[in-house]
Amino acid sequence: NQTSTLTWSATNASSCTASGAWAGTQATSGSLAVSQAATGNYTYGLSCTGAGGSISTSAVLSVVAALSSNAMAITVDLGPNNNSFNMPFVSVTVCQPGTALCQTVDHVQLDTGSYGLRLLASAMNSTTLAALPPVNNALGTPVGECEQFVSGYTWGSVRRADIKLSGETALALPVQIVADQTSPYANVPGSCSSVGNDLGTVSSLGANGILGVGLFNQDCAPCALNPISGRYYACTPSGCTSTVLPLASQVANPVAAFAVDNNGVALVLPSVPPGGANSLTGMLVFGIGTQSNNQLGSATVYATDSVGNFKTTYNNTAYNKSFIDSGSNGLFFDDLSIPVCSGGFYCPVSTLPLSAVNTSATGAASGTVNFTVENIVSLANSVAAANVGGTGLTTGFDWGLPFFFGRTVFVAIKGASTSGGNGPYWAY
Question: Which of 230, 258, 301, 312 could bridge across to 322 with cysteines, CB 3.0–4.6 Å?
Fold first, then answer.
């Protein structure tokens, strides 16, 4: 059985009505223990009315089968800052290489748009952090990294750790410790801080770290040939300067370093009802076609180009730099006909049913994607997951987390052999 507690409160409401997995009239505030035995997703809806109008919200209770050694739970909730939205989380265990000195960090964002593990120094205890050996460049100088995201940058040391994800382990892999205040990493290089917002805190990142399980292995292949400003740095007490760094020393996708189940991942998330959900539970499965629980089945393979893009056609416009990114908290695309509100999100008067066509980079596969866009302002504050969208790139369609709702999405790593061909590709 899966058991959870529903808690609700509707200020100034005169009546509330339950729907979905429960029914009948409910008090305007309360708490109730609920339990389900059969595997599935159970939506508990609640609509309340009063002098100020009406509001509806829901929570999804997911009952999953016992996880295999190549699978782990995904949770979508309000996060460690109680303010995250459309952000999937996993728990990650890091250890001093070759030892049993370990720490598990929860609420690490699961990101198919980046590569490698990045943990906030503030989420780690001092003993574990000090035990992780630093990565040095060819001259023996400790290395720091600046990783750039749409929302800002992460700066910190590069260290080695054994990474444990469910029953899978990546040994002595380079990871980034974000906002590491130990010498010589305490000062952020100007060429890094100039790229955007500092994501070095829980409040700014919305998570305790980022686990990048995208299409590629390392996060900066060109950095193995030439020093690139704003990426890897050789750090001394007097400052940090850009440095060349071999691929084997770069922050890397841990999935590719597993002994088995190392050719990609599958993300499985339930559907989200209208009005959003207060929480979701899904599953991250390692490997593609390597075990009974990660077979492609009827999924269509969408090969990407060399940088992970494919084509999306929306409103008769082709966007050739489109991608799928669980680290984006909405579907981001341009449509001047949809009203825009806070933060660039769309706020349609009513929920919009829309569609687009995805085509693989090779042109071999094509398929229609139906999706909806809700008004983000109308969502309850307790909602952690919803089908929302916003303004996007001029050349690409960003299929963020709402794309994953109600789907199994496969991510095949570049160069890896799978039952659907060699990566990189998406399949769903």
Answer: 312
Which amino acid is it at 354?
Answer: L
Beta-carbon-side half-sphere exposure of residue 189 (alpha carbons within 13 Å)? 27
DSSP 141: -
Has residue 275 been placed in a domain? no
CA-based nearest residue to 213, from 296, 288, 131: 288
Residue-level length of the chain:
428
Dihedral angle over CA of 185, 189, 192, 198, nearest 10: 60
Q: Does the pLDDT of residue 64 top 70, yes or no?
A: no
**DSSP-based helix, strand, coil % in the chain, nearest 5:** 10, 45, 45
Domain holding 420, by residue range, is 292-427
Confidence of residue 342 (pLDDT cuts 50, 70, 90): confident
The answer to whether position 272 is within a domain reads: no
DSSP state of 199: -
Q: At 280, phi and psi to the nearest 5? A: -140, 150
**Final residue belonging to a domain, choices 12, 29, 62:** 62
Q: Residues of the chain with pLDDT > 70: what percent? A: 99
The pLDDT assigned to 97 comes to 99
The vertex-150 CA angle with 322 and 235, nearest 5°, equals 125
What does the DSSP assignment read for 80-119? TTT---S-EEEEEEEE-TTSS-EEEEEEEEEETTSEEEEE
The verdict on residue 337 lying in a domain is yes
Q: What is the CATH number of the domain that holds 397?
A: 2.40.70
Task: Kindly state whether residue 271 falls inside one of the protein's structural domains.
Answer: no
H helices present in 273-322, as ranges: none
pTM: 0.88
What's residue 1's pLDDT? 63
155 burial class (0-12, 13-18, 19+ CB within 10 angstroms)? buried
Give the pLDDT band (50/70/90) at residue 416. very high
CB contact at 8 A, 120 and 93: no
